[in-house]
Design a protein that fits this description.
The chain is an alpha/beta fold. It has two domains: about 1-125 and about 295-325, Medium-chain alcohol dehydrogenases, catalytic domain (Quinone Oxidoreductase, Chain A, domain 1, Alpha-Beta Complex); about 130-270, Rossmann fold (3-Layer(aba) Sandwich). It contains eleven helices and 15 strands. It has helices spanning about 10-15, 40-50, 120-125, 130-140, 160-170, 180-190, 200-210, 220-230, 255-260, 275-290, 305-315; strands at about 1-5, 15-20, 30-40, 65-75, 85-90, 105-110, 115, 150-155, 175-180, 190-195, 215-220, 235-240, 265, 295-300, 320-325. Strands 3, 4, 5, 6, 7, 14 and 15 form a seven-stranded mixed β-sheet that branches. Helix 2 packs across helix 11. The protein binds NADP nicotinamide-adenine-dinucleotide phosphate. The site of NADP nicotinamide-adenine-dinucleotide phosphate has 30 residues, from helix 2, helix 4, helix 5, strand 9 and helix 8.
């Protein structure tokens, strides 16, 4: 099969190689998927670039990308034979595994291939594993009922943020997003947005909410936005933080959060498992089947274009998830 891989960390154009690899064989309980679309997330790009000084490759050769979509073409021993031919989207494909979706074929546990409805394209399916499920996890992973609540989604035009805006609205919440331009505000799908680069976010949120503040924050940059969180979160509110790239070791404002009885959740989608994952997948499947979600696909070209596509993700100059047609 044709695949892309790296054998050492480095810049995309140097580290990524294209060529032929042996076809994978599905093991017991696994499915073999003909990959049609491969989604590229910031985490794939950071992992290929070299996670941190001194980090060592977990495997000698890594086919990147956790997200993707395609069709099941075979199953391993004891696998679900009735699923051959099924369209699927994939999750955690390259999480603690050597082979991700930047290849024509992938073998992975059957539960990591979720049915993809006919009304959702493969490219859209390749946006679900990390961006959509992270958004669901942040909003609903703790069993929250958002009806009538106000949710602040920071970075509402991001791949995760835009799904969070949509999913919070679907749950009956009023959604305020922070963005860096009006174009991104419209893209976010939030009812209201604030340009966080030109405006005082805390002032704006308190004005918009008539001084009430927000019930929940879906946070893309915990450290950078902590002061805003302290200022706008209602007592007993929740912060669901999925990144803190602006300040990776922030000093926690413990007592302001404590006296407001705040719940601080830090979450990573790779660890969404078991009952909670099943709940998330069921809800996502329902939304997909009814066409309730829109997906922001940024066409990244074919597998041959993988290095340029990684650079596009790195640049941040994209509105949505960069997806390769495989
Ligand atoms: N924990 C998890 O499971 C998980 C899952 C997915 C992603 N992540 C991480 O989350 C981050 C975002 O991922 P993504 O795929 O959504 O990336 P993305 O599509 O590039 O979006 C990031 C968004 O965050 C905005 N942003 C950056 N700093 C901000 C700040 N201080 N305040 C408000 N908005 C800010 C950017 O807005 P502007 O460019 O307009 O400033 C951009 O719209 C990445 O670091 C990624 O690694 C974590």
């Amino acid at each position: 099969m044709k695949a892309a891989w790296y054998t050492d960390y480095g810049p995309a154009a140097e580290a990524l190689h294209l060529g032929e690899m042996p076809d994978p064989l599905p093991g017991p309980g696994e499915v073999l998927v003909r990959v049609r679309a491969s989604g590229i997330n910031p985490t794939d790009v950071k992992r290929r670039a070299g996670p941190r000084p001194g980090a060592e490759m977990a495997f000698p050769q890594i086919v990147p990308h956790s997200d993707g979509a395609g069709e099941i073409i075979a199953v391993g021993a004891g696998g679900p034979a009735e699923r051959v031919g099924q369209r699927v989207w994939l999750w955690n494909a390259q999480w603690q595994r050597a082979q991700g979706t930047a290849a024509e074929l992938i073998a992975l546990p059957a539960e990591q291939a979720v049915p993809l409805p006919e009304n959702t394209s493969f490219a859209e399916g390749a946006c679900l594993g990390i961006p959509a499920m992270t958004a669901w996890y942040a909003l609903y992973g703790d069993g929250a009922d958002l009806a009538g609540q106000t949710v602040l989604v920071t970075g509402g035009a991001g791949a995760v943020g835009r799904y969070a805006c949509q999913m919070a609205r679907l749950g009956g919440a009023r959604v305020i997003a922070t963005v860096s331009s009006d174009e991104k505000g419209a893209h976010s799908t939030a009812q209201e947005w604030i340009n966080y680069r030109t405006h005082d976010v805390a002032d704006c949120v308190m004005r918009i909410t008539g001084g009430a503040g927000v019930d929940r924050i879906v946070e893309v940059d915990f450290g950078a936005n902590q002061d805003v969180s302290v200022a706008v979160l209602k007592p007993s509110g929740t912060i669901a933080a999925y990144a803190s790239a602006g300040d990776m070791t922030p000093v926690l404002q413990f007592y302001p959060f404590l006296f407001a009885n705040v719940t601080l959740r830090m979450l990573i989608c790779y660890h969404l498992q078991g009952v909670a994952r099943a709940r998330g997948e069921a809800q996502l499947s329902e939304w997909l089947a009814t066409g309730a979600l829109s997906h922001a696909v940024v066409r990244g070209g074919a597998l041959d274009d993988i290095a340029r596509a990684h650079e596009l993700v790195e640049s941040g100059a994209k509105l949505g998830t960069v997806v390769l047609d495989v």
